[in-house]
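Training component of the fellowship. As part of building independent skills, the fellow (R.M.) carried out the full modelling exercise for a liganded target. The chosen ligand was zinc ion. The inputs are recorded below so that the supervisory panel can assess the work.
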Amino acid sequence: MKFHDAHCHIPSNYFYNNIDQHMKEWLKLGLEYVIGVSSTHNESLKVLEISKKHEQIIPGIGIHPWKAKSPLKEETKKSFSDILENNSLIVIGEIGLDHHFIKKTELYPFQEDYLKFFLSLAEKYSVPVNIHTKGAEGECSDILSSYKIHNNKILIHWYSGPETVLRIFRDRGYYFSVNPSILGGSTHIKVVEENDISQLLTESDGNVKYNINNERIVGSPKLVPQIIEKIASLKSETTDTLSTVLHANLLRYLNLT
Ligand SMILES: [Zn+2]
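Fellow's submitted model of the complex:
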């Protein structure tokens, strides 16, 4: 089965240190593309470097909201702008807001500043974005609506917030990436139920660990074929039809069609 992973932490040490081996295994299973998202500026540089070696890795550059702890330095901003100036097939992520895992409210203005900075770059360079939103879905929705992202290429990763915001995002035409948590029957299933398959993508969020049927499983692109089977059964589609649609969605999201 051909598949993609629209959100995997490729430049994290877990994958980065052994990437050639991992890629060999994933390609054998049918992986076509993996968006390698970054959590820091340093990881952004790393994923750019690996993507030059493996054409199936689409680099995702950005700073995760968990890492937004002080004002963004001018030189870091300049570096991100330079990267976008010089690369065309690229995604901005993982970026977003997190008021659930981050309890220190004094950090929220930093999260907001980082998100706005990256969205303004996405607007300027017509680049798709890969969004994290946890416990701040309404705030995220307000900020996203004030930017003109090219053709609405906004991907909401692992959505688990209120259904009201889920429907707002759906009605705006955003993409949702479905991840391995649905294999364990989590609330994330709502994302599949509420959306047409034309708005879905698949992801592992590797190397996050999942509890699936009382087993602790490491997230990686290897799990995506099981996600496709699960979505196919929820949507009463064949896996062949579904993977064809998912592939077309990814190409559209990446501005490749
Ligand atoms: Zn992630």
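The panel noted the following from the submitted structure. The mean pLDDT is 96. The longest strand covers residues 91-98.
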